[in-house]
């Protein structure tokens, strides 16, 4: 066996062992959950059955038959049906469990009973939903519903604190239920598997008192807000990206559409969706765990404030809450928190005004396409096939004779330009590649191609740098193969291809394709 | 306080949040001196400030990530002294010496 075969066989064995281990961990998590539930069932059964035991002696030593029958009848009754009223409004364990918040005037016994009687729906069990759910379940909200269609991924774990390494690949709703149940078994948890859709939104939201928007796209944010307005539910909405977070309490007080005393909705604040190219996801832009965690915890806090204020404040809005506001959190700014006064309901809002066009019927019919309303970015495909090269063929150029120049492989035969941001380039890069971040490239004015910038010496450093080696073909690579295409186009606009004499093209599929097809050890971040 | 200086300029603070700072050379906070009157001799308002930012302050060529149809693009909130610009007359609000204008891009991640 050659070394290559040994390496391959070892790799295969490791992969198979890893997947076995993964499966075992998952089975363990499920088994633990089940045994935990059985144990708590057993305990409640035992507590019912062991009650007569202290009387066993009397029973077997001549107690009057009538008296005996009477006692047995009383004991065989389930506890709830005993006519005497419950002596204390909370269960004994609840006084202990919630004691530290119970003694605060903001909560008190009334507040705790309101939390216990309340039901809350958390849409999205990710970076916001996990901490929000943990604090609401911990505080003793009676019923908590969870909506999510995703499964747990390893890259979620740094911020989505209810999930665990053993539960990777498990549906997020299921994973969260396991964690929340072990935190507080007193709370009723309701799973709603699958993504929220316009057709299911109304029936899903209906049974709940309040909704938390913990989702991650503009389309879902409009859908959640519209549904809350139509059903008269207060909405606690938050979002986060990189080092920033935003929080708004919307539709509060939750007055019917057309009533100007109601709080503004998401559409009042953002009547038009942002252009899709301006929307950055956590996967692309990054997210710091404690930043999104802070926002989720604040959502739980606002929810507790609203629920403990009581139903009178919810429905008639007499105890009118704080005026509408937006809380902005910037982890690296000073001060970190800032509160902005927001507008009231917009007189022409499409859902909460007298001019509303969005009704429950329209929503249920599914005729509203929220994804289309917010727009999507078509996959970038701006280059012709002879301006592109596959990762495998580029690997050949690095190892074999260059098909473009006929030269022996050499690092100096071409320029490999990596356009990921500097911080990503420093995580991992291909040997010999040079880094010009895409942000630098896209902030370079395109009119350099008139040659005026070159003559006046105002040309950006990177452009004149690349102009110097006119003979070397340029291969552009990025993370996924989108920015690289735009870069190739821009470099040609800047005249870096010498009117077509120098080959400039991109590596199709970027470093992801490189990892898949050439070097499986290249880090996947 | 609210009067323009002798040279007819006014000093204001402009801030960016939610990722907009990336379009302005990663500056979160700018101290700007802007003309007190616009091209037509009217008092400088937010509409003028947005044009001014776009034409003279912003180096990034991706103007469409800041303006659309001569006003800030959808998804950007404009806050005048910590209040929604809708409460202050939107882009017709006349800027005063010492004003703080904050541009916030909405976030969607969660
Ligand atoms: Zn509205």
What do you see in this structure?
Chain A is of the alpha/beta class. In chain A, 43% of the residues lie in helices and 12% in strands. Chain A is built from 23 helices and 13 strands. About 3% of the residues of chain A have low confidence. The longest helix of chain B is centred in the middle third of the chain and has 12 residues. Chain B is globular. The mean pLDDT of chain B is 91. At the A-B interface, strand 5, strand 6, strand 7 and strand 8 of A face strand 5, strand 6 and strand 7 of B. The structure holds zinc ion.
Quick summary of this structure?
Chain A: This is Adenylyltransferase and sulfurtransferase uba4. The complex is a heterodimer of chains A (525) and B (110). By secondary structure, chain A is of the alpha/beta class.
What keyword list fits this structure?
heterodimer, A: 525 residues, alpha/beta, Rossmann fold, Oxidized Rhodanese, domain 1, 2 domains, 8-stranded mixed sheet, 5-stranded parallel sheet, 13 strands, 12% strand, globular, B: 110 residues, mainly beta, Ubiquitin-like (UB roll), 5-stranded mixed sheet, two-stranded antiparallel sheet, 30% strand, binds zinc ion, cytoplasm (chain B), Urm1 (chain B), Mopterin_synth/thiamin_S_b (chain B)
The largest sheet of chain A is: 8 strands, mixed
CATH architecture of chain B: Roll
Q: Biggest interface in this structure? A: A-B, 53 and 31 residues
Strand content of chain A: 5-15%
InterPro entries (chain B): Beta-grasp_dom_sf, Mopterin_synth/thiamin_S_b, Urm1
Keywords (chain B): Cytoplasm, Isopeptide bond, tRNA processing, Ubl conjugation pathway
Modified residues (1-thioglycine) (chain B): 110
Family (chain B): Belongs to the URM1 family.
